[in-house]
Design brief:
By secondary structure, this protein is an alpha/beta fold. The protein is built from ten helices and eight strands. The chain has an eight-stranded parallel beta barrel with strand order 1-2-3-4-5-6-7-8, surrounded by six helices. The relative contact order is 0.15. It binds phosphoenolpyruvate. The site of phosphoenolpyruvate (PEP) has 14 residues, from strand 8.
């Protein structure tokens, strides 16, 4: 039985004041014991604030990125050890915005994945195809290669303590969502690629998830939750998505 997981990716949004308001209004709704696990990934500088605000709750925190290196002369980088030190449980790796705007390759993503696990963070490995790749019928090949790069470096068993996020690039922040059937097809493929351990690995969907489409997506056999960008900035919407995962 895989526990549903909903992760908020705030991207580069927030301030001390708005983070506090957003988290407090979410916590006022998300009370008690839940079947679904929830985590929030604020901008790195606000991780200690989020850790403090969420300390008495069952909501976890994660980073939006992590360095492949452990320490040293890497100006601007943040190591997995530092993220663990401020209380993170999760780290996104290979988000399409990192792959696109920061030229992160499959191999770099794999190194970040390994660095996260070295410091007991759960990597949320983001994979997904562009629109051109989907239209060229390359979706499964692209996703398979992104996954293979990590499996080759980390070993397949490492995937047991990771989460995979299938995020079609064309659906991120665009309002376009993969249909439940499109998403299910890729999730089932990812699970199959993971072989005997696949059944236990959580695979979440990301790409314009909102209250109106969450339930249908989560009803698919291989969709175990969501990575939520835009809608996670609105507490009521994020709460509704979390509820749909219960
Ligand atoms: C994301 O950034 O991972 C994401 C899924 O964004 P959005 O929900 O806004 O499409």
């Amino acid at each position: 039985m895989r526990r549903p997981l909903v992760v908020a990716n705030w991207k580069m949004n927030g301030s001390f004041a708005s983070n506090s308001e957003r988290l407090q209004s979410f916590l006022a709704l998300w009370k008690g014991v839940h079947q679904a696990e929830v985590a929030v990934c604020p901008p790195t500088v606000y991780l200690p604030q989020a850790a403090e605000l969420l300390a008495q709750s069952n909501v976890g925190i994660g980073a939006q990125d992590v360095s492949a290196a452990d320490e040293g002369a890497y100006t601007g980088e943040i190591s997995a050890a530092m993220l663990a030190d401020v209380g993170c449980q999760f780290a996104l790796v290979g988000h399409s915005e990192r792959r696109e705007y920061h030229a992160e390759t499959d191999v770099m993503v794999a190194k970040k994945f390994v660095a996260a696990q070295r410091h007991k963070l759960t990597p949320v490995l983001c994979v997904g195809e562009t629109l051109a790749q989907r239209e060229a019928d390359e979706t499964l090949v692209v996703v398979g290669e992104q996954l293979k790069a990590v499996v080759d470096l980390a070993g397949r068993s490492a995937m047991s303590s990771a989460v995979v996020a299938y995020e079609p690039v064309w659906a991120i922040g665009t309002g376009l969502t993969a249909t439940p059937e499109q998403a299910q097809e890729v999730h089932a493929y990812i699970r199959e690629q993971l072989g005997s351990i696949g059944a236990g690995v959580r695979i979440v969907y990301g790409g314009s998830v909102k209250p109106s489409n969450a339930e249908e997506l989560f009803s698919q056999d291989d969709i175990d939750g969501a990575l939520v960008g835009g809608a996670s900035l609105v507490s009521n919407d994020f709460y509704s998505i979390c509820q749909a995962a219960e």
